[in-house]
Structures are given as C-alpha cells and as structure tokens.
C-alpha cells in the first residue's frame, strides 16, 4: 500500500513524494471516487484534509461522497459576495439533505475590497485581480493549515484539465485530491440520479459550470461545460487550482479588446455572426435583422443572450415587438459617409425605449463618436488605431453647437426657447 505521510506545516520539497503520488494514482480504478476519497481521508491525510466546494452545478456528487466518508469533514465555501442567490440557497439545501455539519464560509478581506474594488466592478476590467481578492487571498491561509485538500474538478470540463489525475503534488509539496477526475458528464448525471441528489436551480437553464454571477453564463450544446465562465477572456481558472505538474493556472489574458464602453476598452463576449450558426443554438452573436425575421421563432426559443445587427436599409421598426429579447443592438456604419445608423439608434432609444447596450460597429472613427453618443449609442467597436488612442487618452471633441436636437432636453442653435410652445 503506497503511503504518503501528512505534511508538517513547514513544507520542504521531497523528490520521493513525487514517486509516492505516481504510485497512488496507479492504485485506484478510474471511477473509484469513493475509494480515492476514503484512502485520502483515512490513510494519507487523516485529520489533515479539507474540502473546497463552489456548491456549483456538479458539487452535489462530491459532497455526497464526503457525507459517505465523514459528515464532519471541513468544507470551505468561498463566499465572494458575487454569487447567484440560487447558489446561496443551494448551500443550505445540500447541508440539510446530506447532513453536512461543518460547512465554513470564507469571506474576502473588507480592507482589500475597499482598497481595490470599492464599487464592486473590478470583475469587468480585471477578473484575475477580482478572483485573487475574493478567492485566492482568502483561501490561501486556510489551505496552509492542511496537508492537502479535495476538489471537484474533472477531466472533461476543459482541455486544460484533460490530464487531471486523482492525486496531485502542488508546488509546495502538499496534496490535492480529485476524486471525480475521470467522471464524464454522463457519469455525473448517472450518479445524481442513482442517489437522487438535488440539482442546482440554474442547471436546467443551461448553466453547466457555476461560479460568481457576473462572470457566469449559460452554455450551449457542444460547448465545454466551463465555456460560460469568463466569456470574452482567455481565462479558464480562478487561480486557486494548480495543474497536474504543480504550476498555477496561466495568468489571464484578455482577448483583443475592441469594444469601448463605460470609459475603457473591455473584452467583448459577442462573436461575429456566421451563416453556419444554428438559430436554435445561437448565443452571444449579433443576428442580422433579416436573418432574425426569417428564423424568428427559433431565435426566440433560445434562452441565451442574443444581439441584433441592423445595417443601412434595414428597418428597426420591423422588430419593434421583439427588441426586449436582445441584450445588445449593433448598428452598422459601413462607411464614414453613411449616416443612416444614427436614425436607427435614435429610434431604438427614444421611440422604442430600448434600455440595453447599443453599439456602433463598422467604420467607427473619432469624429463620429460624439455624434453617436448623442443618438444613444453607448458602446463602440473600434479597430482604427488613432481612434483607439484618442479614446484611451480621452481626447475626443465634444459637440456644443448643433441644429438638430436629440431627446427632449436639447435646444438647437438659432432658436428662441422663450417663444417655444409648451407641450
């Protein structure tokens, strides 16, 4: 029987431990999750092991295994302050259903939040730092108290986890246990059914991997279960997990940031429409207006976020009744001299009261942006480098004199407001 002794609090690298981990990974059948957890709790790290659980879509399986081994095993839940309300309710559901007696919430430092994320929007521009403040920093002093801990990670979830073993040796010579490493999505579903485990309330709505609410979206058929995490970023892990050779997940790198919104360039979760897109499975795309009209019923059935693309010559009036279905309207400006998009934006905002994002796409240049803003456009997809630089440096001209007002508050030059009729 391979033995790996519990670690002292002062860790020193021991090359022989790596061989012990290799031996451990050869001891168990791929699907022997209960055996892996029992051996870890009783033979490898008795009294020196904790669980880290997100209480997400698949957490019930791991927590059921924990309840079979030791209902009082410490289970740490990162209470980031950004969870879905459904997740918080699910914590209580599983505690009661499985008889778990030692679920411990971990909170981020109030000082760190006040200093680095005072308005709670850090996730929009720097999700790595948000995860660090709300997850990594609070968890590190907890895990340092233990010789190892248990996760619910699985190989099938992402390509990065495709080589995940049952046992990992971290870079500081502690042990990470992944009892469900070889479980497939079908295995997870079968286990839930066999033990009549309650589902996370959001699972039925397409949320296959559930983290903090701002950074989690539903996924579609054929997507990685974690594709809905941090859409728009080249980011797959929150930073608390190590890969199979002990290296921490690579730092997040944002995709090319081309959308300017709320005063900064941000990652764009929306992808370009292609003719191969299945209307029933569409998500995070701007659908050309004519395509939406042709396949309206199929698009309306999907629960995923959708956008609408309106090009010159297309009438926003034709989809007035469905505008609330869209989270974003993209107004196409194919050429600097084509101004029809301004009317589309004004109709959407002023007549149809569209409250979501309206973005300008196409030939978007610095001189246009102040005019676009006056018409209700609040986001700009910009590839023109001089315009990008002007936006980044806040060097756009403002329009102070105009002849055609927008909204109800503007008064054009040359008029005498005191002579205007009321109403």
Automatic annotation (TrEMBL):
Listed GO MF terms: 4 iron, 4 sulfur cluster binding; adenylyl-sulfate reductase (thioredoxin) activity; metal ion binding; phosphoadenylyl-sulfate reductase (thioredoxin) activity
UniProt similarity note: Belongs to the PAPS reductase family. CysH subfamily.
Gene3D superfamilies listed in its UniProt record: HUPs
GO cellular component: cytoplasm
Alphabetized HAMAP family for the sequence: CysH
Predominant place of localization: cytoplasm
Subcellular location: Cytoplasm
Transmembrane regions listed in the UniProt entry: none
Occurrences of domain Phosphoadenosine phosphosulphate reductase (ranges): 50-218
Function: Catalyzes the formation of sulfite from adenosine 5'-phosphosulfate (APS) using thioredoxin as an electron donor.
Highest taxon above the source species: Bacteria
Pathway: Sulfur metabolism; hydrogen sulfide biosynthesis; sulfite from sulfate
Residues annotated as binding [4Fe-4S] cluster: 130-131, 212, 215
Enzyme class of the recorded protein, top EC level: oxidoreductase
A biological-process GO annotation: hydrogen sulfide biosynthetic process
Residue positions of the active site: 238 (nucleophile)
Lineage of origin: Bacteria, Pseudomonadati, Pseudomonadota, Alphaproteobacteria, Hyphomicrobiales
SUPFAM superfamilies in the cross-refs: Adenine nucleotide alpha hydrolases-like
Catalytic activity: [thioredoxin]-disulfide + sulfite + AMP + 2 H(+) = adenosine 5'-phosphosulfate + [thioredoxin]-dithiol
Organism listed in the record: Devosia pacifica
Protein name: Adenosine 5'-phosphosulfate reductase
UniProt xrefs under InterPro entries: PAPS/APS_Rdtase, PAPS_reduct_dom, Rossmann-like_a/b/a_fold, UCP030820
Cofactor list: [4Fe-4S] cluster
Cofactor comment: Binds 1 [4Fe-4S] cluster per subunit.
Keyword annotations of the record: Cytoplasm, Iron, Iron-sulfur, Metal-binding, Oxidoreductase
EC numbers for this chain: 1.8.4.10
């Amino acid at each position: 029987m391979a033995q790996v002794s519990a670690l002292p609090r002062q860790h020193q690298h021991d090359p022989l431990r790596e061989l012990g981990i290799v031996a451990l990974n050869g001891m168990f059948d791929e699907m022997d999750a209960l055996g892996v957890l029992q051996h870890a709790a009783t033979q490898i790290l008795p009294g020196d092991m904790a669980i880290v659980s997100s209480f997400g879509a698949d957490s019930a399986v791991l927590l059921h295994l924990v309840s079979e081994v030791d209902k009082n095993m410490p289970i740490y839940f990162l209470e980031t302050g950004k969870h879905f309300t459904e997740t918080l309710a699910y914590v209580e559901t599983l505690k009661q259903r499985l008889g778990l007696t030692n679920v411990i919430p971990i909170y981020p430092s109030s000082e760190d939040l006040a200093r680095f994320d005072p308005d709670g929007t850090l996730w929009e521009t720097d999700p790595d730092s948000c995860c660090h403040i709300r997850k990594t920093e609070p968890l590190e002093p907890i895990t340092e108290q233990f010789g190892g801990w248990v996760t619910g990670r699985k190989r099938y979830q992402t390509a990065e986890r495709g080589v995940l073993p049952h046992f990992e040796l971290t870079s500081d010579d502690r042990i990470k246990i992944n009892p469900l490493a070889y479980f497939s999505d079908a295995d997870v579903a079968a286990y839930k059914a066999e033990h009549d485990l309650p589902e996370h309330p959001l699972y039925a709505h397409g949320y296959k991997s559930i983290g903090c609410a701002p950074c989690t979206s539903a996924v579609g058929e054929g997507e990685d279960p974690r594709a809905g995490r941090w859409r728009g970023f080249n980011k797959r892990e929150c930073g608390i997990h190590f890969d199979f050779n002990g290296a921490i997940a690579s730092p997040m790198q944002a995709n090319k940031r081309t959308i300017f919104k709320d005063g900064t360039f941000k990652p764009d979760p929306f992808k370009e429409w292609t003719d191969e897109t299945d209307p029933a499975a569409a998500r995070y795309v701007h659908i050309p207006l004519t395509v939406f009209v042709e396949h309206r019923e199929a698009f309306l059935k999907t629960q995923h976020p959708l956008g609408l693309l309106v090009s010159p010559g297309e009438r926003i009036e034709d989809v007035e009744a469905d505008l609330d279905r869209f989270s974003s309207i993209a107004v196409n400006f194919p050429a600097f001299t084509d101004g029809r998009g301004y009317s589309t934006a004004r109709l959407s905002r002023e007549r149809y009261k569209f409250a979501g994002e309206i973005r300008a796409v196409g030939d978007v240049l610095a001189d246009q942006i102040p005019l676009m803003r006056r018409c209700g456009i609040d986001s700009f997809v910009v590839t023109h480098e001089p315009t990008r630089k002007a936006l980044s440096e806040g060097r756009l001209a403002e329009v102070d004199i105009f002849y055609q007002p927008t909204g109800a508050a503007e008064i054009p030059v040359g008029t005498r407001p005191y002579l205007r009729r009321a109403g």
